[in-house]
Amino acid sequence: MADTFQTFEEDLSLTSQEDCEDSARSILEKLRPEWKSSEIVFEYFSVGITNKIFSAGFGTEHVIFRVFGHNTNKVIDRENEVTAWRQLAEHGFAAPLYGKFNNGLICGFLEGKSLKIEEMRDSSFHVNIAKRIAQLHTSVPTNGKSLVFEKMHQFLKQLDTKFEKPGQQEFYDKNFPADLEAEVQKVENLIVKLKEPIAFCHNDLLVHNIVYNKEKKTIEFIDYEYAFPNYALYDIANHFCEYAGVEGTPDYSKCLTKDQKWLFINDYLRFGSEKPQCGVRIASMFKNLPLFEAAAHLFWAIWALVQAQNSTIDFDYLTYAYARYQQYEKRFEKYIATAQH
Asked: Record's family (predicted)?
């Protein structure tokens, strides 16, 4: 099967399934000329709140189409996504990337199923997730510079503090500070001082982006839209935030307990490069964890505010932004209270 990266001048419809499949077939005539167009089977995955994702299969072979949502280029650097994806595939952490079309990408199919939130909360999966994060962080080279705050500043440049709908404006004014830039700077100043290790991070390890292969009993990660060099502890903290779920309003009472987080970090270090294990290092990471959880919540709160103004997807981004911002405040206060002791 050819694995050279190709470019196709096609737009896949986000609204018409028939038009979308016609365009996909047109691409597959060039990408997989041996496939019989009439026998191609499409399967849709409606788990993303940013993109339209579906597979195209012929016999036992499958490829994945990712169609970008409208205006997602405002929050996702598509050039970086392709570069990061190809780099990760080279090191065995992503499916091969076969090509791009005007509003999306085509990639290989990873065997397995995305975890369900109940499965992710099952402690039997924690050690394998921690191991795979550690492998990612220790295998893919970086230039040693975190980009997370640069991304947040870029988001804020896309955000208009004036909303079109009066109800949205009232909600925004009531629940968010007048100067979000100051909040980002406040967190950045504290995190930079900690000098936590930087690694190549996934940065979006929510339940749908974690694939479990039952036969091999292995964990893989998918969807690298937000992958970039970052603080390793941010990647872990961001993952911890996602145990609240992504459908509807997140329930943060369902996140891991302190003991579960401690064990997860211990497993992460055990499989990573920081050996032999050191209780002092685990304690240091655990002490800094709430600040990185706060940073993750702030990142997604600002992201959701931009999406609320630009996305055409039927999702209540504004309420989601508020839920994340509330958690940002709580985790930041937790860190400050702990750091003072």
From this structure: Belongs to the choline/ethanolamine kinase family.
